[in-house]
Every structure is written in C-alpha cells, then in structure tokens.
Known about the structure:
Layout: E1 2-10, H1 17-28, E2 41-47, H2 53-64, E3 70-77
Antiparallel strand pairs: 1-2, 1-3
Amino acid sequence: MARVVVDVMPKAEILDPQGQAIVGALPRLGFNGVSDVRQGKRFELEVGDDVDDDELAKIAESLLANTVIEDWKVTRLQ
C-alpha cells in the first residue's frame, strides 16, 4: 500500500473568495504581513501498489477536482 496526496487549488485566474476572506481577517486577528491566500483542498489516498500515475490522474480529474477552475497535483509519499 502507498499513500498518495492530491492537492487541488483554484487556477491562478479564478477569484478565490475564501482566500480573500482569510486575508481580510488576518490583520483583524493581529497577523500582519500576509498579502495573499489561496485556499485549496488536500486529499490523502491509500492505494495499492498496482495503482499507476495514469489511474491517479483519472481519479483527480474525474472526481477530486473541477478541472475548469482548479489545478491538481499528485504526490506519492514515501
């Protein structure tokens, strides 16, 4: 078994209202110096050794990410 992480983030050209809300809240909470936040999603999958990168890409594109507005990246953990 292997652990795989799929990170999904809004594409750079897509407005991220959640990230902007966080940026606005940080100074009110006493945290200064943060100029931008992009909020995404992280998925951790336990997969069999027979699951290859092509299959992981299909999982990410068809289920975990909305590829119209989100980019994704698969990382295999050791």
